[in-house]
Design goal:
about 170 residues; alpha/beta; 7 helices
């Protein structure tokens, strides 16, 4: 698996845990089903992350968001966009940790994923081979201004127009 953010590839500090056995892992990534047991075992200095399906109900997830450092949303296919909606809901519920999209996305979806609140994308090797990292980074920069407010670095077009009018007097 390749991990990348808006600046390029990065090293994954998270270790996938078998079941809820997190032992002495500093950054343990568990599946949704194992999360309750993992949280009970968590030591003070451990960070817990969870992999959730893209169809999970936010009502269930929001109950544990404050205890998590990473939420990884699994995309079963690039054509299944429910994970983008889930990312916005997770951010709207105050999650400030790392939000990861995981699965066979395509480079054209990278800028949108960032604007929905994702910090990074974990790609299967097949996706990384089909579309090299350079294509992903180019795609992320291709959209410089959005029509909607997002979670990326750039302001939306309406905010920029308002700022220009205010500056003009």
């Amino acid at each position: 698996m390749q991990l990348l953010d808006r600046t390029g590839t990065k090293t994954d500090v998270w270790t996938r845990s078998e079941g809820a056995a997190i032992g002495n892992l500093s950054h343990a990534l568990v599946d949704w089903e194992a999360l309750p047991d993992a949280l009970r075992q968590k030591a003070r200095d451990q960070r817990i992350g969870v992999t959730v399906p893209n169809h999970i109900r936010i009502a269930e997830l929001k109950l544990v968001l404050r205890q998590l450092s990473l939420v990884s949303v699994a995309f079963p296919a690039f054509s299944d966009g429910r994970g983008f909606s889930l990312a916005k809901l997770i951010r709207n519920h105050g999650f400030t940790g790392t939000l990861r999209a995981s699965g066979p996305l395509i480079a054209d979806q990278f800028a949108y994923a960032l604007s929905c609140g994702f910090d990074e994308i974990e790609l299967p090797e097949t996706s990384a081979v089909r579309q090299p990292i350079e294509q992903w980074l180019t795609a992320a920069r291709r959209i410089s201004h959005g029509y909607q407010r997002g979670y990326g670095d750039s302001r939306n077009i309406l905010d920029q127009r308002r700022a220009a009018r205010a500056a003009a007097g």
